[in-house]
Amino acid sequence: MAKTFFPKMFIMVPASAPHPKNTQYKVSIGEELWSDNRNPVIKIQMVYNGEIAGRRSPSYPLGTDDFQRVMLAVEKLIAKSQDNEIEII
């Protein structure tokens, strides 16, 4: 499978139970190929035991602060990108 996402920076956020141990959310800013064009995107991926879970969509257990912590990571990455610490073409 050809690579379609090219992260420029990311933050790993630990996931709460009932996710399995060693589960994280990878919150990234980067470029993703859409119809032969590289588009700047924010991407959130599930990571299990250090491996990105392909097309599995992120899910946030109710009763946890997972969603809030992921959104805080998104805000931090956006702020960094706006401070010109990263160039998204």
Automatic annotation (TrEMBL):
<protein>
    <submittedName>
        <fullName>Uncharacterized protein</fullName>
    </submittedName>
</protein>
